[in-house]
Design a protein that fits this description.
The complex is a heterodimer. By secondary structure, chain A is an all-alpha fold. Chain A contains seven helices and no strands. In chain A, helix 2 crosses helix 3. The relative contact order of chain A is 0.09. In chain B, strand 6 and strand 7 form a beta hairpin. The chains are: A mainly alpha, B alpha/beta. Chains A and B meet through helix 3, helix 4 and helix 5 of A and helix 4 of B.
């Protein structure tokens, strides 16, 4: 806090969220818990698929420290995620947003599930109904007729 | 139904193969910066050696090159002479700045003493400036025009050709 006050006095600009905090400052155990929660939504930019909360890298630790600082100052999760997204783009968000092309990430698996369910149900219905009468008719199936002829041959 | 399943499967397969081919040769770590075309994020950092504070406002008026690096980064050793040489030639017209993060002042000073220096090197102690610029590794270089807008970002060690090609965008 003193550091920020000194910076304000000196009119020195540091990287920060441009708007005022929209939430309530958190502290103590709640701050630890919220820091981990928000950090687990951010991708560590120097790791392979690790969140900022899980990565031991210095970069992730710096980011986690910033998350903690923002939460302590009363910034909301949305404001914090938006701050990191501004610098890194949507890449930094481990949970893609439901907007633009990212919508496909959410919709395609659901569409694939529905498609798969339709295929399975229609196959199950076919099996339930049994083989079509067409296939059973020997005259219409030369292969079956030939098999029957061979089997029935004395 | 079988025909429909087959066609759908083929469409999905073709789409996946298409995406694969489109991305062949594309470095997945080289992500386009969302900061291009936007004002460079603010910073106020201490210069290694002199201890003077340097902020983003002091870079306006001239095209600027902000190079993020560290002494523990192998490719930065390769890139350093390119930056120093270009800064010596273009220093009057272009503002060069080095920003070092995840490092110590002692190591940076030793590096600069050994390998030369031609522009201010700033220490980003808490990595806040690197995060504000969306740095995902070092070296990464940002090219700013006279008004302080980021016009290009280069990931990896710069050669003179790459530096000048990107600088041309900032000089427009």
């Amino acid at each position: 806090m003193i550091f920020l006050f000194v910076l304000t006095l000196l009119q020195i600009k540091v990287p920060d969220i441009a708007e005022a905090p929209k939430g309530v400052p958190v502290a103590g155990a709640m701050l630890d818990r919220r820091t981990n929660e928000v950090a687990s939504l951010l991708r560590c930019p120097v790791c392979q698929g690790l969140s900022v909360a899980d990565s031991p890298s210095t970069m992730a630790q710096d980011m986690k420290h910033q998350v903690r600082e923002f939460l302590a100052r009363g910034y909301t999760q949305e404001q914090i995620l938006a701050y990191f997204e501004k610098s890194y783009g949507q890449f930094v968000l481990l949970k893609p947003k439901f907007s633009g092309v990212s919508t496909l990430v959410w919709l395609l698996p659901i569409a694939a599930l529905i498609f798969g369910a339709v295929v399975v149900l229609s196959k199950a219905k076919q099996l339930e109904e049994g083989p079509s009468p067409k296939a059973e008719t020997a005259e219409e199936d030369p292969y079956l007729a030939r098999v029957r002829e061979l089997v029935e041959k004395p | 139904m079988n025909k429909a399943v087959l066609i759908s499967g083929l469409v999905i397969f073709a789409a996946l193969v298409g995406v694969l081919f489109l991305n062949l040769g594309h470095d997945p770590s080289a992500i386009d910066s969302p900061l291009i075309g936007k004002p460079a994020p603010n910073f106020a950092l201490k210069a290694v050696g002199s201890g003077q504070m340097l902020d983003i406002a002091s870079l306006r008026g001239k095209p600027a090159i902000i190079n993020f690096w560290a002494t523990w980064c192998g490719p930065c050793y390769e890139e350093h002479p390119v930056l120093v040489q270009n800064a010596r030639v273009l220093g009057n017209d272009v503002q060069f700045v080095g920003v070092v993060f995840n490092d110590t002042e002692q190591k940076i000073q030793a590096f600069l003493n050994q390998r030369g220096s031609a522009y201010p090197t700033l220490l980003d102690e808490q990595g806040k400036t690197a995060v504000a610029y969306g740095v995902g590794g070092v070296p990464e270089t940002f090219f700013l025009d006279r008004s302080g807008t980021i016009v290009a970002k280069y990931t990896g060690p710069l050669s003179t050709e790459e530096l000048q090609a990107n600088l041309a965008k900032a000089m427009k």
